[in-house]
């Protein structure tokens, strides 16, 4: 990276992280109960989940943190996202790239953090994000599941 300015290096790292995240999102798989990949089901599940996801960036300077959040409620002009507390750290205004609106980054507000659990709720001033649909029951052994997000960034 030589003599590049810190801002340029930071921008390149963020671009690489975002590209990696999008690749990870594109590789979501859903296994059938017989253990074979069911691509049409995986595609449908991913298509329904994607608008509910957000890529979270918190911190500043050399201390950035990245993670995944998903919409749990949306009303009026506000959507609420759930993420891990360790992702937002002490940043009270994390930035989120909403998959429902990938054309711009939104600044969120931490509205609740778990004291014993590693969770945080972030309010974002965009009201038309669909909440993710979660299964009403615990999956049974061997049942197919879907996973989507931005791990290991």
List keywords for this structure.
3 helices, alpha+beta, 153 residues, seven-stranded antiparallel β-sheet
In words, what does this structure look like?
- The protein has 153 residues and is an alpha+beta fold.
- It has three helices and seven strands; from the N terminus they run H-H-E-E-E-H-E-E-E-E.
- Strand 1 and strand 2 form a beta hairpin.
- The radius of gyration is 17 Å and the shape is globular.
- About 19% of the residues have low confidence.
Number of E-state strands:
7
- What's the order of the H and E elements? HHEEEHEEEE
- Rg for CA atoms: 17 Å
The helix content is 10-25%
Class from helix and strand fractions: alpha+beta
How do the strands of the widest beta sheet line up side by side?
Answer: 5-4-1-2-3-7-6
Total count of helical runs of at least 4 residues:
3
User: Which band does the percent of strand residues land in?
Assistant: 25-35%
- Give the N-to-C terminal Cα separation: 20 Å
Mean pLDDT: 77
- Based on Cα principal axes, name the global outline: globular
Give the biggest beta sheet: 7 strands, antiparallel
- Poorly predicted runs of 5 or more residues: 8-12, 14-37
Per-chain topology:
Elements: H1 6-26, H2 39-49, E1 53-60, E2 63-75, E3 78-83, H3 85-88, E4 95-98, E5 105-107, E6 109-113, E7 120-124
Antiparallel strand pairs: 1-2, 1-4, 2-3, 3-7, 4-5, 6-7
Short characterization:
With 153 residues, the protein is an alpha+beta fold. It is built from 3 helices and 7 strands.
